[in-house]
Amino acid sequence: MPEAVLRWVDANVLGWLQARERKALKFTVVAQLAILVAMIGLRAIPLVTGQTVLVRVQPVDPRDLFRGDYVTLSYDFSRGSRSGIQGLSESEVWGSKKTEGRPVYVTLVPDSDRVHWRADKYTVAKPDGGLFLKGQMGRYGSLQFGIESYFVQEGTGHMYEQAIREHKLSAELAVTSGGQAALRSLRIE
User: Fold this and answer.
1) The predicted structure's pLDDT at residue 103
2) Are residues 55 and 42 in the same domain?
3) What CA–CA distance (Å, rounded) separates 62 from 72?
4) Cβ(179)–Cβ(126) under 8 Å?
5) 61 phi and psi, to 5 degrees?
6) What order do you get walking across the sheet with 51-58 strand by strand?
């Protein structure tokens, strides 16, 4: 670049930036904090606004050697429906990679004990009303809802292991009207 252009850039552009250095730094800090607060806030929405439901937990290995007492959870509704998912053929549900990541909705109804909730219908179309979970298709008919893991206090993992084996562990979920779920706590019954 010619020397005259460099002097103009130095005098005008760099001078402009240096004059506003404090404002630019403040803006950057505020923007980063806003992004962090938004990330936390979006994950907390179900906990604040969601309806609380209790669902039964299915056995899965509840320990991770690298993370300590880290409980991996599975639910009846996480395994998909053998009768199928409305809007998908059986081959799409159980063997197609094309459906991985596709949204799926599971409507929930009270279980016979009137304490727990269970899956009623599986569909790719958002339900018009009622309580439902929004998840996504995984491999071989598995469904993920973002509630498949939970950290427990160090040294208490064995209690949860035993409760899972005895089918006495339930998960307390907060579910929004849009189907977003968050795991509030685990209960040993």
Assistant:
1) 92
2) no
3) 5
4) yes
5) -55, 115
6) 74-75, 51-58, 169-175, 181-188
Contact between residue 181 and residue 96 where contact means Cβ atoms under 8 Å apart: no
Domain co-membership, 57 together with 20: no
31 token code pair? 């923007």
Going by the DSSP 8-state scheme, the letter that residue 177 receives in this structure is T
- pLDDT at position 32 is 95
**Domain total of the chain:** 2
Lowest mean pLDDT among 27-41, 54-68, 108-122: 54-68
The yes-or-no verdict on residue 174 having pLDDT over 90 is yes
Helix (H) or strand (E) holding 28: helix 21-49
Please give the angle made by the CA atoms of 46, 103 and 108, to the nearest 5 degrees. 55
Residue 104: CB atoms within 10 A of its CB come to 27
25 is in which domain, residue-wise? 3-46
